[in-house]
From TrEMBL:
Residues 24-72 form the PDZ domain. Gene3D superfamilies: 2.30.42.10. SUPFAM superfamilies: PDZ domain-like (SSF50156). SMART domains: PDZ. It comes from Photobacterium angustum (strain S14 / CCUG 15956). This is PDZ domain-containing protein. Pfam families: PDZ.
Length: 114
C-alpha cells in the first residue's frame, strides 16, 4: 500500500508540468495511468480538462482524447520521468502530440507554449 501512495505523489508532481511547465502553458489537465515501478511508465494518458481559450482548445483537443505520444515519448513505452521532460513547455517552445480523439480518430498536433 505504501508504494501506491508514493507512486501517486510522484504522478501528481508530473500532471501540472504538462499544463504549466516553467512559465509555458497549453491548457490541458491529464489523468496518467502508471504501469510498473522501476521506472514507472505512463501506461495511458487521457485529457481530463481543456482550458477555455487555451492553445489546446484552439488545436481541437477535447476531454476524453488519449495522448499517444509527446515529442519523442511514445506511450506506453515512455517512463513518467521521460514524459515529464518531454512535456516541459516554455513560452514559444513547440510540442508535437499524437492523440486518438474520443471518437477514435488519430490526430497529429503541434502546439506552441503560450
Amino acid at each position: 500500500m505504501r508504494r501506491h501512495h508514493q507512486l501517486a505523489i510522484f504522478i501528481a508532481t508530473f500532471i501540472p508540468m504538462f499544463s504549466y511547465a516553467g512559465t509555458g502553458h497549453i491548457g490541458l489537465g491529464l489523468d496518467i495511468t502508471p504501469s510498473g515501478y522501476m521506472p514507472p511508465k505512463a501506461k495511458e494518458v487521457i485529457v481530463t480538462s481543456v482550458e477555455k481559450g487555451s492553445v489546446a482548445e484552439k488545436a481541437g483537443i477535447h476531454v476524453g482524447d488519449e495522448i499517444k505520444s509527446i515529442n519523442s515519448c511514445v506511450i506506453p513505452e515512455c517512463s513518467l520521468e521521460e514524459f515529464a521532460q518531454e512535456s516541459h513547455i516554455l513560452p514559444g517552445s513547440k510540442v508535437k502530440i499524437n492523440i486518438v480523439t474520443n471518437t477514435g480518430k488519430r490526430k497529429k498536433i503541434e502546439l506552441i507554449g503560450a
